[in-house]
Specification:
This protein is mostly helical. Helices cover 42% and strands 9% of the residues. Strands 1-4-3 form a three-stranded antiparallel beta sheet. It has a three-stranded mixed beta sheet with strand order 2-6-5.
Length: 235
């Protein structure tokens, strides 16, 4: 788990680089003075009585509930990444519009994408995720969308992304395979099928789409500034 000092460093770097290009930015850290009251305000909806406060799934659910209750109506898409994610918002918009076109479903239909980098939901899919949280049948311990518990989600390695997929599957939604969609790949300048939409900085890639959507596994905050310069040039 990222240390407090590292989280603070990443938060500053994100705010000064790709975060300033987003229509909205929320860096969720319950230990921060500005976030703690927001977390407390939704705690009654996700009490977490059977787990501990560090439960990653509990924390994600509280964050999602805050977003759904406070800002959902203001935005079309919501991107969720860890500290080491660097999103290129302009390219994500290109991909999202192309995804909506190729799926032949407008912004009023639920769509989401997911991968090792995190996940992104449009507003209708976010609403479906909240419905899965509130469904008592989905939420029993062995259900598709379990409530936080020590047995299932209390470990440090609980995969919140996989649990989001399970919750949305309960609502009948599957992640869009946008990496394989011709319209998305064309919009992002992918020259061949080997071109990747995302750059995992832990592993080298022979070919990236010209308008790659994001980089992830950024190993240190100062890398954010180098990526910013590589993508946008000197400021």
């Amino acid at each position: 788990e990222t240390s407090a000092a590292a989280r603070s460093g990443y938060a500053r770097a994100v705010a000064r680089t790709w975060g300033k290009r987003c229509n909205g930015l929320l860096m969720w850290d319950e230990h921060r003075a500005d976030i703690a009251p927001l977390d407390l305000a939704v705690a009654h909806l996700e009490p977490g009585l059977e787990t501990h406060s560090r439960d990653r799934w509990l924390r994600v659910r509280r964050m999602v509930r805050h977003i759904a209750g406070s800002v959902q109506q203001r935005f079309d898409w919501f991107i969720f990444v860890d500290d080491g994610g660097f999103v290129i918002p302009e390219n994500f918009r290109l991909a999202a519009v192309s995804l909506e076109d190729e799926s032949r479903r407008g912004v009023s239909s639920p769509l989401y994408v997911s991968g090792g980098w995190g996940f992104a939901l449009n507003a209708p899919a976010l609403a479906e995720l909240i419905l899965s949280f509130d469904d008592r049948h989905a939420g029993h311990e062995d259900g598709l969308c379990p409530h936080p518990s020590m047995r299932l989600t209390g470990g440090r390695q609980a995969n919140a992304q996989a649990l989001v997929q399970r919750c949305l599957a309960y609502r009948g939604l599957q992640a869009s395979a946008w990496e394989q969609m011709s319209r998305v790949r064309s919009a992002l300048g992918c020259v061949d099928q080997a071109s990747e939409l995302f750059l995992n900085l832990k592993y080298s890639r022979d070919s990236l789409c010209h308008y790659a959507v994001l980089a992830f596994m950024v190993p240190a905050p100062y890398w954010m500034y180098d990526i910013e310069t590589a993508v946008y040039g000197e400021s």
